[in-house]
């Protein structure tokens, strides 16, 4: 068993003593509101993290409407109330905040309040709560992620904001927070003052580095005056802007040194800005890719330094600490996915950790100001509601389909005390995850986790089992959950059944039996490939083998430019194929979230993938396909035509069972609850939970 020697050593940040080096950096849950926020963080506190940083907590009253990154203004009163509930602008908030901090302490964690201004501010919030929330910046003009024009703040307004930070720090201290964190990174308001990219002022707050960091140091001083110098202050700052004309690591070092002299007790090293053209958290970023920034910061300060970004593996985190590259490790999304990760890692239960898969769906919802979510953990943001307890009556539950939705339904139903039988027609559990894991190297660890949980629980698993109505009649279950997957979309495209056409459904079915495609040689090749897909439980090897001419030959045209098509194009382009991607709508990657879409399209562009929008396929031929691109007909040469169109609802079995009087729940791709992993997991969880 791997023993982690460094990650669980205590550490002091000023007067603040932490039991270990794991910090849940800001993973905002305010979209859930009230009891949901408390429950969300309480689970992470119980799970063993040393410090929770709660953000972002506004230093002013946003009023009834909050602008989120300049892009969403239709915030409901309930959402706005939730944001104000976890802010730091007034004494009236103290009762709720004290309840929050007491809950965190009772569950074993220290907690810090992150003081935040993003891009907006309400100047007259104390006298006019209904007044406008304005987009502001150091110098005015376009500024920040997806923002239009902003207004430059005046010197008097800067002084007001400095005082607001000090007042907020005092509220945090009175509320029982163990520390505060001043957020001065990722292109937010304070970071914009630090960076010459956005700070073009000519007064005492612009120009030289000394002037650009004046406001941040004044805020530190204001906080200290109102809380006392012993109250710990952490600074979160982007060590490198990764923006043309912005601060480099060498530019930032003097700022960090000045913060240490000012009395900061720790540095939380951030990376880049929201609009930096550098991927930072997406699946293609190497784990621990930005630790080098913290390593360099440690050379110029004597206070603890925290590193983060794509650190989901506690073994990697332990190595980072042991090698002296950082003193603490931020694991925000890792703890969203599995709140118990610290305790499981400390006890050596690495196989039972539900690891983050870097899909960034949680960030997509956070940017939209919505309730937090997680693709692999359906309880996120709903911890106060989804409490898994024994059912009033134990029932016999039959689950048809061992994909992510079926396995999650089986897990939850078994935890609630039901007798569960899980059937799948394949020889391995996983369903569509088996194929997805070949395309995405982040997914096999999730499949391994799901499979292990099913095997650990009292769930009867029947593989190589076709289920029909007569089978259900023999089993006599009380409840049936159908998670049998979708069916290929119907299409009238001439030539769609040609031998050179390959669909994702073909690949998935090849894991069960070889398709009858082509002549004798091609059928023999398919038999060998099907055996590999069925028996070789090594997605990385299969992914590597895609560089050869089976099942995708050299020139590939992909029909469907959604998530599945883009992902396939990315993988095949990396393996030397000549790729053309056709999308009938005007938007490639239409179903990919805002955090990831730009990275996917950038990778495809850099790989030389030809991408055509508004392309309607007319006919598939032996040598390629014809399509109308806009108003013009074009021919695309191809050895293989790949279909990545969305699967259709597969409700035949569910309908038949309902007609026979069975209680049926349909989840995943076979029902309208399908989609990607997050939708499948949410539907599977609800099905198991509601029985």
Trace the largest sheet across and list its strands.
3-4-5-10-11-12-13-14
Helix content: 25-40%
Low-pLDDT segments: 68-73
The fraction of residues assigned to DSSP E strands is 15-25%
User: So, the CATH homologous superfamily of the largest domain?
Assistant: Aldolase class I
Please give the count of helices: 24
Q: In total, how many beta strands?
A: 27
Notes on the protein architecture:
The protein is an alpha/beta fold and 691 residues long. It folds into 3 domains: 21-367, TIM Barrel (Alpha-Beta Barrel); 396-487 and 648-690, NAD(P)-binding Rossmann-like Domain (Rossmann fold, 3-Layer(aba) Sandwich), CATH 3.40.50; 501-643, FAD/NAD(P)-binding domain (3-Layer(bba) Sandwich), CATH 3.50.50. The protein has 24 helices and 27 strands. The strands form 6 sheets. Strands 3-4-5-10-11-12-13-14 form an 8-stranded parallel barrel, surrounded by 7 helices. Strands 17-16-15-18-27 form a 5-stranded parallel beta sheet, with helices on both faces. A 5-stranded parallel beta sheet has the order 19-26-20-21-22. Helix 15 (432-439) packs across helix 20.
Question: Which descriptors apply to this entry?
Answer:
FAD/NAD(P)-binding domain; 3 domains; TIM Barrel; eight-stranded parallel beta barrel; five-stranded parallel sheet; 691 residues; Rossmann fold; alpha/beta
Fold blueprint:
Layout: E1 11-13, E2 16-18, E3 22-24, H1 34-46, E4 51-58, H2 77-85, H3 94-106, E5 110-116, E6 120-121, E7 134-137, E8 141-142, E9 149-152, H4 155-175, E10 179-184, H5 189-194, H6 209-212, H7 214-227, E11 233-238, H8 249-262, E12 266-270, H9 291-298, E13 305-307, H10 314-322, E14 328-330, H11 332-337, H12 341-346, H13 361-367, E15 396-400, H14 404-415, E16 419-423, H15 432-439, H16 443-456, E17 459-462, H17 469-475, E18 479-482, E19 501-503, H18 504-510, H19 520-535, H20 539-545, E20 555-559, H21 563-574, E21 578-582, H22 594-606, E22 610-612, E23 615-621, E24 624-629, E25 632-637, E26 640-643, H23 652-659, E27 663-666, H24 677-690
Parallel strand pairs: 3-4, 3-14, 4-5, 5-10, 7-9, 10-11, 11-12, 12-13, 13-14, 15-16, 15-18, 16-17, 18-27, 19-26, 20-21, 20-26, 21-22
Antiparallel strand pairs: 1-2, 6-7, 8-9, 23-24, 24-25
């Amino acid at each position: 068993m791997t023993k982690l020697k460094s990650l669980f050593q205590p550490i002091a940040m000023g007067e603040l003593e932490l039991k270990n080096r794991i910090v849940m950096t800001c993973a905002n849950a305010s979209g859930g509101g009230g009891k949901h926020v408390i429950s969300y963080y309480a689970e992470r506190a119980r799970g063993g993290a040393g410090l929770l940083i709660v953000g972002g907590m506004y230093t002013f009253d946003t009023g009834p409407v909050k602008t989120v990154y300049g892009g969403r203004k239709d915030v409901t009163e309930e959402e706005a109330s939730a944001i104000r509930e976890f802010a730091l602008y007034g004494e009236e908030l103290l009762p709720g905040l004290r309840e929050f901090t007491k809950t965190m302490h009772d569950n074993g964690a220290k907690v810090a309040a992150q003081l935040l201004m993003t891009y907006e501010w309400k100047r007259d919030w104390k006298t006019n709560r209904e007044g406008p929330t304005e987009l502001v910046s150091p110098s005015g003009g376009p500024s920040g992620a997806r923002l239009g024009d902003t207004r430059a703040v005046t010197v008097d307004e800067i002084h007001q904001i400095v005082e607001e930070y000090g007042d907020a720090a005092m509220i945090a201290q009175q509320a029982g927070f163990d520390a505060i964190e001043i957020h001065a990174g990722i292109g937010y308001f304070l970071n914009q003052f630090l960076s010459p990219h956005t700070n073009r002022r000519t007064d005492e707050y612009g120009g030289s580095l000394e002037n650009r960091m004046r406001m941040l140091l004044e805020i530190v001083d204001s906080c200290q005056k109102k809380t006392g110098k012993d109250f710990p202050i952490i600074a979160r700052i982007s060590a490198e802007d990764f923006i043309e004309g912005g601060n480099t690591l060498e530019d930032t070092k003097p700022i960090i040194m000045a913060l240490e002299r000012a009395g900061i007790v720790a540095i939380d090293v951030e990376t880049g800005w929201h609009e930096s053209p550098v991927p930072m958290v997406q699946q293609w970023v190497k784990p621990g890719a930005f630790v080098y920034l913290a390593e360099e910061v440690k050379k110029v300060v004597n206070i603890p330094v925290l590193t983060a970004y794509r650190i989901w593996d506690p073994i990697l985190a332990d190595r980072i600490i042991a090698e002296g590259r950082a003193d603490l490790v931020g694991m925000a999304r890792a703890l969203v996915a599995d709140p118990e990760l610290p305790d499981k890692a400390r006890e050596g239960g690495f196989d039972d950790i539900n690891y983050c898969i870097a899909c960034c769906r949680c960030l997509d919802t956070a940017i939209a100001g919505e309730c937090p979510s997680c693709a692999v953990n359906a309880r996120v943001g709903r911890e106060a509601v989804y409490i898994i307890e024994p059912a009033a009556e134990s029932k016999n539950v039959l689950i048809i389909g061992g994909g992510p939705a079926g396995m999650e339904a089986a897990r939850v139903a078994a935890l609630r005390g039901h007798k569960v039988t899980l059937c799948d027609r394949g020889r391995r559990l996983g369903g569509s995850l088996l194929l997805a894991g070949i395309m995405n190297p982040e997914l096999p660890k999730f499949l391994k986790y799901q499979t292990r949980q099913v095997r650990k629980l009292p769930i009867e698993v029947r593989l190589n089992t076709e289920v029909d109505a007569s089978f259900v009649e023999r089993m006599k279950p009380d409840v049936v959950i159908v998670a049998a997957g979708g069916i290929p979309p119907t299409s009238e495209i001439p030539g769609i059944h040609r031998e050179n056409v390959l669909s994702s459904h073909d690949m998935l079915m090849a894991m069960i039996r070889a398709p009858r495609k082509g002549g004798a040689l091609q059928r023999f090749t398919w038999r060998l490939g099907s055996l590999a897909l069925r028996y070789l439980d090594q997605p990385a090897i299969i992914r590597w083998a895609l560089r050869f001419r089976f099942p995708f030959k050299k020139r590939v045209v992909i029909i469907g430019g959604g998530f599945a098509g883009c992902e396939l194009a990315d993988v095949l382009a990396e393996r030397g194929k000549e790729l053309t991607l056709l999308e009938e709508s005007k938007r490639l990657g239409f179903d990919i979230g805002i955090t990831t879409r730009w990275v996917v399209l950038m990778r495809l562009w850099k790989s030389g993938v030809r991408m055509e929008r508004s392309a309607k396929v007319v006919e598939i031929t032996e040598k390629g396909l014809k399509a109308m691109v806009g108003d013009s007909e074009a021919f695309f040469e191809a050895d293989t035509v790949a279909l990545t169109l969305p699967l259709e609802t597969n409700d035949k079995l569910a309908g038949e069972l309902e007609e026979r009087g069975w209680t049926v729940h349909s989840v995943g791709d076979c029902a309208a609850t399908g989609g990607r992993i997050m939708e499948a997991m949410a539907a599977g969880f609800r099905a198991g939970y509601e029985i």
